[in-house]
């Protein structure tokens, strides 16, 4: 598990200054990208021949436990709940101070993309599987 921080921005809130439910999803994606970079993995890694290894999402959910307000600082714990053959399930725990405010999950599938061709689901390469597995909660 790796923790990252994000501040609740004005754009993330409703008229009452409470973080809107939809704002949790971009924060999960941003935290995922930061953690992947720390592991030396790109969400759009160039491959030989002009193809790219990429990770489209096939599922996302978030459960909300407490209200969060404008300018509060959130700690987001990112872990892998499951590393399968072709997909990875990330878990997210949002905390303000020590209060758990939300929990989310994203499932991403390992694919190769080449311009002009459809995405092709592939087996997660062993070196990436090992790095992703290091985040297991």
If you had to describe this structure to a student in words, what would you say it looks like?
The protein is an alpha+beta fold and 137 residues long. Helix content is 17%, strand content 42%. It contains two helices and nine strands, in the order βαββββββββα. It has helices at residues 24-38, 126-133; strands at residues 2-7, 44-46, 52-54, 57-64, 73-83, 87-96, 99-109, 111-113, 120-121. The strands form two sheets. Strands 1-5-6-7-4 form a five-stranded antiparallel sheet. It has a four-stranded antiparallel sheet with strand order 2-3-8-9, with no helix packed on it. A hairpin with a 5-residue loop joins β2 and β3 (52-54). The radius of gyration is 16 Å and the shape is elongated.
List the helices and strands and how they pair.
Layout (H helix, E strand, L loop, with lengths): L1 E6 L16 H15 L5 E3 L5 E3 L2 E8 L8 E11 L3 E10 L2 E11 L1 E3 L6 E2 L4 H8 L4
Compact summary:
The protein has 137 residues and is of the alpha+beta class. 17% of the residues lie in helices and 42% in strands. A five-stranded antiparallel β-sheet has the order 1-5-6-7-4. Strands 2-3-8-9 form a four-stranded antiparallel β-sheet, with no helix packed on it.
